[in-house]
Predict the 3D structure of the following.
Amino acid sequence: MTTREFPPDFLWGAAAASYQIEGAVDADGRGPSIWDTFVRVPGAILNGDDADVACEHYERMPQDVALMERLGLGSYRFSTAWPRVCPDGKRVNPAGLDFYSRLTDELLAAGITPFLTLYHWDLPQALEDEGGWTNRDTAHRFLDYAMVVHDALGDRVDSWTTHNEPWCSAFMGYTSGGHAPGRQEGVAGVVAAHHLLLGHGLFVEEFRRRGGTPDRGKSVGITLNPTVADPFDPTREADVDAARRLDGFHNRVFLDPLLRGAYADDLARDTEGMLFDGRPWQDVVHDGDLALISQPLDFLGVNFYHGDVPAALRYDAAPGELLGSRIEHSPRPRESPYPGGGFVFPRTGRPTTDRDWEIDPDAFRRLLVRLRDDYDAPPIYITENGAMADDVVEDGAIHDVGRQHYIEQHLHAVLDAIDEGVDVRGYFVWSLMDNFEWSYGYAHRFGIVHVDYDTQVRTPKDSALWFAEVAARNALQ
Ligand code: FCB
């Protein structure tokens, strides 16, 4: 095999998120988040797991950073927990903020670049009680919280990401109800999406106002999880239309306002007659919002796990044909996260990870090329990519060849996109360590480091040792 090099200065890292690893949900004045509430809804989380303890990262943070240093990671993508920093969504809690200040110092001392995300889904419950992301005011509260974090860490953190996967926050949270806060309110997902984008825009504006510009070494972006929507049967008009709708409510609902300053017309057509609070969702888009949302970004974060191959729902299909889809695999019965629904995800026969996500690295390459071709996207960081595997511990080692192979295939796809001229600047593997995988609890392991939840012992898997070598060489071979 020939060696394939990554561009010089390519950033190699691992990612994690506050709620998934920290535990310590009552420590030092932290308030409850929507996930603390949601994990207690019967049936919401596989095996009834909760994240009260998780990986005990809140206590073990210095050792975890030391582990990252041993793995030679250049960067660590983490999120700050809004309910630690502002327990009721508003009031500042210096003790909670201090944790992230210590984390930042620890990372810098270890030579690891902090890559900070402001919102990875843990909305303070008090704000959800006032409507959550369907309430415009939440975008303004987000700005206040984000600036508190910025004021405390801005001297040491250069890379700022507003949201992680707002698609999940909006559509899993408010349309399908598969994620916290578990609301199943149809077009409310689009309303939430707009307010998430508004919060993003408000932060970008203030960040720039305070001198956050690349020439001063500061950058701001957002992480999306765009998919690749290929019709199951490209000769069937209904499947082609399903792919268009999926693309609309997964990709373009975010990409268009962010990178073109407008919502596409077909979103309006597809939601005609659907009301939230008695009104069409477009009513929440105020004059000036789209200008705020479409301010230039320094980077786009892309999370990618799988493409999507929708088929229009056939009412004559046997149940078995409809099962086997990604969405049906969730532990909790749920609505479609796409307002109006009307399509399913039959298997295509590709190999899958142990989560049953079909593996399609070329879809990843096509996505990256499309972001450049259709959107003239800013420089891209792969902010998440990785695989769930049913890992087995054998004599203290974890030979997770499947995960390693998955990552390798996707790194090749990144290189293929770079060869086609796409500006990709870095790659963060999801995840640093096994953690609380949302509605799948602890059963779904994504880490390159194994966590024994009885003892909290961390053991680098074979994939971690391999990943460290790739990062050190800055090349695949
Ligand atoms: C992404 C999330 C991340 C993790 C991975 C598997 O959607 O951003 O927290 O759960 O999926």
Notes: Confidence is low (pLDDT under 50) at residues 321-333. Residues 4-316+328-476 form a domain with the TIM Barrel fold (CATH 3.20.20.80).
